[in-house]
Specification:
Order of helices and strands: HHEHEEEEH
Oligomer: single chain
CATH architecture: Roll
Largest sheet: 5 strands, mixed
Structural class: alpha+beta
Shape: globular
Distance between the termini: 46 Å
Number of domains: 1
CATH class: Alpha Beta
Helix content: 25-40%
Strand content: 35-45%
Number of strands: 5
């Protein structure tokens, strides 16, 4: 049911916003496959948990807002906005103390009541520019 899928993505948002990794085990399948173009090593459930923890460490005030969700059959597309302040080294980037807001879309696939696959597209360039890591011109 589309409403069940949307409720799981709301739980995923809670996981991102609080860093509660117990939610990962609750809503993601053990054989979860992640398709994240900016870090292909974040591929399975364990590397995904480490990725979430690293994101929360680098941006302790990380906050995700869901703008839209469209669900059909076993898929859900989610358009989101993320905000955070870069307080600690973040994937090898020394802390800048700057704030960033960026957008993205994630498409999820579900099976047996769990998230089994996710495909990500986000404005990482815009985030890095806001942090002052990449020039804007």
């Amino acid at each position: 049911m589309p409403e069940d899928l949307k409720a799981m993505i709301q739980r995923s948002k809670e996981m991102w916003n609080t860093g509660n990794l117990k939610i990962v085990d609750e809503i993601y399948a053990q054989d979860f496959v992640n398709h994240y173009p900016f870090d292909p090593s974040v591929r399975d459930l364990e590397s995904f948990k480490k990725f979430v923890a690293e994101c929360r460490k680098g941006m302790p005030d990380l906050n995700v807002t869901i703008e839209d969700m469209i669900a059909e059959k076993d898929r859900l597309a989610c358009r989101w906005v993320c905000f955070g302040t870069h307080k600690v080294d973040f994937f090898g980037i020394p802390a800048t103390g700057k704030k960033a807001t960026w957008t993205g879309v994630t498409i999820y696939r579900f099976d047996s009541g769990k998230i089994v696959e996710a495909w990500w597209s986000e404005d990482a360039l815009g985030m890095l520019q806001q942090l002052g890591v990449i020039p804007t011109e």
